[in-house]
Design brief:
The chain has 320 residues and is α/β, with parallel strands linked by helices. 33% of the residues lie in helices and 20% in strands. One of its GO terms (molecular function) is epoxide hydrolase activity.
Length: 320
């Protein structure tokens, strides 16, 4: 592996509403040395576990208003930072990051902490990563709350189902939403990426300057953003992409998953709109559940409606 960067601790001092003690675990993935992953561990040690997974370009700071709601409900909250994000280690070379390694790193966290009876709460890339961990460690997971997330498959059967199209057509063509392609190309060509630009553009309510700065805190220099940039490049756009193959394998596992599976999507996120109905139809554990639509929230519903999301998760844990 190339150089591994570690954001200085002083970058995380006095962030608004984020006064959680840091915890660390070494995680492993094929072909690279063990890395240090940061996670929050809040609430009663013997409580049911909620595993809160973030995506691109955020970190556990995203869940700062969700965590207290769950802790008050007696839930133990584990909220990691993906490798390359937050307080976790950051390989400096983009090609050290792969979709499979992100899955392995998160799986290593789950097994390393020996988590059981887990409620997976997954948003954005937290879905493809976390659901793939669930497929590999099914017995550790009791239920799922899917929140504004997708599962990369490029399946032709998704035609007409999603607001942002990503699906194969015929034997050798693919249909892609123009906005998705524009987003991917911009992030690969821009000389500097700022997490706050993406977060601020995908919420309904304007975010305070100090909150936006908190999203940039893990990336004090451009060299720290290799993982952020590469995660966008890992978006599977065709059926031949290794990420799409992982997604299809994970979907086959979900089609056998009979434990509670609840969707909690916002009404203001075209990037994931349609996936809630796909999950409701294809996952046995989703059938007959009280699925939730949160009004007045964007892609990062944790920012627009964090307490409401927390109450949904707490209710799912209490009633299933």
């Amino acid at each position: 592996m190339s150089e591994v960067l570690r954001t200085p601790d002083e970058c995380f001092v006095d962030l608004p509403d984020y006064r959680f003690a840091p915890h660390y675990v070494d995680v492993a993935a094929d072909g690279v040395e063990p890395l240090r992953m940061h996670y929050l561990d809040e609430g009663p040690a013997d409580g049911p576990v909620a595993l809160l997974l973030h995506g691109q370009p955020t970190w556990s700071y995203l869940y700062r208003t969700v965590v207290p709601v769950l802790v008050a409900a007696g839930v133990r909250v584990i909220a990691p930072d993906n490798i390359g994000f937050g307080r976790s280690d950051k390989p400096a070379t983009a090609t050290d990051y792969t979709f499979a390694r992100h899955v392995e790193w998160t799986r290593s966290l789950v097994t390393g902490l020996d988590l059981h009876d887990v409620t997976l709460v997954a948003q954005d890339w937290g879905g493809p990563i976390g659901l793939s961990v669930l497929a590999a460690e099914t017995d550790r997971f009791a239920r799922v709350v899917a929140a504004n997330t997708i599962l990369h498959t490029a399946d032709p059967g998704l035609a007409g189902r999603l607001t942002w199209a990503v699906h194969g057509e015929g034997d050798s063509r693919v249909v892609l939403e123009e906005s998705l392609v524009d987003y991917l190309l911009y992030t690969q060509r821009a000389p500097v990426l700022r997490a706050s630009d993406f977060v601020g553009a995908a919420t309904v309510a304007p975010l305070a300057a100090d909150v936006l700065a908190a999203y940039d805190a893990p990336f004090p220099e451009p060299s720290f953003t290799a993982g952020m940039r590469q995660m966008i490049a890992l978006l599977p756009l065709t059926r031949n992409d290794v990420g799409a193959r992982i997604g299809r394998r994970t979907m086959r596992a979900l089609e056998q998953f009979e434990r509670p599976f609840v969707t909690c999507y916002s009404d203001g996120d075209p990037a994931t709109r349609g996936w809630e109905t796909v999950f409701q139809e294809r996952v046995p554990g989703a059938r007959g559940r009280a699925h939730v639509t949160i009004a007045g929230a964007g892609h990062f519903l944790q920012e627009d409606a964090g307490a409401e999301l927390g109450r949904v998760v707490a209710d799912v844990i209490a009633t299933t």
